[in-house]
Automatic annotation (TrEMBL):
GO biological process, one term: methylation
Species whose genome carries this gene: marine sediment metagenome
Keywords: Methyltransferase, Transferase
Name of this chain's protein: DNA methylase N-4/N-6 domain-containing protein
Molecular function (Gene Ontology), one example: DNA binding
Location of the DNA methylase N-4/N-6 domain: 2-231
Pfam families the UniProt entry points to: N6_N4_Mtase
Calcium found in the keyword field: no
Record-linked InterPro entries: DNA_methylase_N4/N6, RM_Methyltransferase, SAM-dependent_MTases_sf
């Protein structure tokens, strides 16, 4: 804080290391990363997302399965010998609220086989998507057919990822370390991906085993690494010369344009390519379905009108 200012502290990250250090009291199994910026208003932050699994951290609320017939079954019914087996056409889900604080919206009534269902918005609450938005969610089957406010169906495959937080418990050190204080590649990789873009320059003033240079090379970042030890530099040189990396497609390449069109379901760009790494790579995509996105989908209204006719 004294060097950069407390306003320029971006994050404090705890990450797991190989083994607990010898201590008289409590063994330390976590190290801490401090992320500071010279100017917080100008800092570059790239959010990272991690695949999640139903029932595990970040996805424990997904406890039910909706069958193809529309029945809701506890997810435990589909766990056999510790393995989750979902039948074809079924989807894992949890429920979300359809209201937010503030305002005072009217009640909404829907027809039902057993009469009618009235959704009552409590005092000092308003419908997240407005009255018409709630009606659209009802028409497309995104709401449970029951009274209440936490009835929005949020399916697991709407967005099966979770944002990376400031606690990293999966970063144990490397088993094949060649340097006494060699850092696992995972925490360094995440730091580089969060704070830089392809073509950016990464500086490591304490080279050690060369993990920073190794990771930066993999992800298309330029790098400078420094050390006073000849042994450290020699190990780094050997590590880099023998490194084998996955092959990535540049966005600014003809193959990249074709792949980008394939992923985005569009026509390939006809722009000239120059192999500029600063334009990044061709990345995987993940859909993210939200209440607001469903409500704004005008095709739903057209389909509904055609069905009514």
């Amino acid at each position: 804080d004294e060097v950069f200012g407390d306003n320029n502290c971006i994050a404090q990250i705890g990450f797991a290391k190989t083994t607990g250090s010898t201590a008289e009291a409590v063994a330390a199994i976590f190290d801490t990363l401090l992320w500071y910026a010279k100017d917080r208003d100008l800092v570059k932050i790239r959010k990272l997302y991690w695949p999640q699994t139903p029932g595990e951290e970040g996805a424990k609320e997904y406890k039910r399965v909706e069958t193809a017939e529309g029945n809701l079954i506890p997810i435990t019914k589909y766990i056999h010998n510790g393995k989750l087996e979902i039948p074809a056409g079924a989807r894992i889900l949890t429920t979300g609220s359809i209201v937010s604080k503030g305002g005072d919206d009217p009640d909404i009534q829907f027809p039902s086989s057993s009469g009618s269902i009235i959704l009552s918005c409590k005092p000092n609450r308003h419908w997240k998507c407005g009255v018409e938005g709630v009606k659209k969610l009802w028409r497309v089957g995104r709401l449970l057919r029951q009274p209440g406010l936490r009835i929005y169906k949020r399916y697991f495959d709407d967005f099966p990822f979770r944002p990376l937080t400031n606690i990293w418990g999966d970063t144990r050190g490397e088993d094949d370390a060649t340097y006494v204080v060699q850092t696992d590649t995972k925490p360094v990789e995440r730091c580089i991906l969060m704070a830089t873009d392809p073509g950016d320059l990464v500086l490591d003033p304490t080279c050690g085993s060369g993990t920073t240079a190794y990771v930066a090379e993999q992800w298309g970042r330029r790098w400078i690494t420094v050390d006073t030890s000849r042994v450290a530099l020699a190990l780094t040189r050997v590590r880099l010369m023998g490194a084998r990396y996955a092959y990535y497609l540049l966005a600014d390449s003809s193959d990249g344009q074709v792949k980008e069109a394939e992923i985005s379901h569009s026509e390939p760009s006809q722009a000239l390519t120059h192999g500029n790494i600063r334009q990044g790579f061709v990345y995987e995509r993940a859909r993210h379905i939200m209440q607001s996105g469903i409500v704004k989908n005008s095709e739903i209204d057209v389909i509904w009108e055609n069905c009514e006719e």
